[in-house]
Amino acid sequence: MYETLTYTGGVHKHEEVTELIEDLGGFVLQENFSQMDLVITIAVPIDDVDKVKEKAKELLGTIKVAPMAGTEIAIVSPTLARQHLPHSACDISEYLRRYGAKDNMIGLSRGAGKGISRISEDEKRLVEEHDLAVFALGSFRECILNKTHLFDDLEIPIVVTGAPHMNADEIPGATAYVGGLGRIPRRLKRGENIRALRNLVSTVEGILNDKRYEIAQDPPIVPSILVKSEIENQVPAIEEIYSPSPIVSQLDGVRVKLNFDRYKDEIGNVEVDDYRLKDVSEIIKSMMYDYTLVKLLPESSIL
Question: What is the pTM (predicted TM-score) of this model?
Answer without folding.
Answer: 0.88
